[in-house]
Design goal:
YutG-like, 0% strand, globular, binds magnesium ion, single chain, 10 helices
Amino acid sequence: MKSENMKETCIRMIEERGCKIADIVEIVYDLQKKYIPDLDLATCIDAVDRVLGKREVQYAVFTGVELDYLAENEKLREPLQSLVNSDNPLFGIDEILVLSICNLYGSIGLTNFGYVDKVKPGIIGKLDKIGKETGFCHTFLDDIIGAIAAAAASSVAHNAQD
Ligand code: MG
């Protein structure tokens, strides 16, 4: 598959699971607005787009979103099926999977991810709630979105510094 198709597939997979790219942009904007008063939305849109163009990100999306989908459809074998479908807090592989995304633009990405993971702003909180109240499984998706937002925010921060 060509790299532009990989990016498009990655975006489609995220959107099919209920998260718009604009939702991720919103988190990036909120994360950086307090540090960069004249920040504009176009800068955040560009940063998210660049993150989605990275192979590390695309591979994490293909893997994580697929596992959520399979768990939701009872297609995984035990014990993984129950661990993923119940979003077991001790599982932790969802957070590990996205470390390669967090580290794209330096260690500030990990700090941003920790913050987003705890506060669950915007779409991340919504997906978490939907996952708990319905049959949808967002065990990997929330971390993927958090990590993409964290990496994009780090990129914005580094560019603002230069
Ligand atoms: Mg998770």
